[in-house]
Request: fold
Amino acid sequence: MFEGPTIDVARRLVGAMLYRRIPRGAPDAGTLLAGRIVETEAYLPLVDPACHGYRGPTKRTAALFGRAGFAYVYLIYGMYYCLNVTTERAGIGAAVLIRALEPVAGIAAMQRRRGARVALDALASGPGNLCRAMSIDLRCDGADLRSGDIVIARPKDTPAVEIAVSGRIGLNVAQRWPLRFFDPRSPSVSPYRKGRRRAQETRAVSR
DNA sequence: CAATAGATCATCT
DNA sequence: GATGATCTATTGC
Reply:
């Protein structure tokens, strides 16, 4: 699931499931949330100036440099969290950013986090919204994604999906690198906005 | 529809 | 002290 080159993992994660058990103490504690991953971005080892590991490990990026299959969570713009899955072997800083989910289970609890008037398709669309809906914050940094309160898995009956490719979103460097992967049929794929338009030179790829 | 401002803070220089 | 792998509300076509 998390083995192999980062790009392969990013593609493999589209269509996979993300499960989240809300921990004790939080609202809706014990509730199981689930969503189907429909959008990811690869942040490559060594050569990618947009990857947080590009300049070597720091305290913040410690998890990024750990073994594959763990969470790397960071705070962005002072108010949102982003969930990444670490890839590659220990000592290499690379990851896949999880950008959007289609809500599958625990929708009422997600709505309590995001606001009741938010449309179903938008509940976990975009990395910041996704983390808010799934109750993911810095406490999740370093978590094992094979077992625990956050699990990413590809159930046996997971159907093959069409995967489209585009440039990455929100970057100042290397944004045109074709490292964003998404299910073009999903209504939950995060919308492009001004300044992101350029990245949307997509081409469909089936598998 | 497009464009802009503002919120807000851990981390790094 | 500056900087974001963002989102939302609001403004102006």
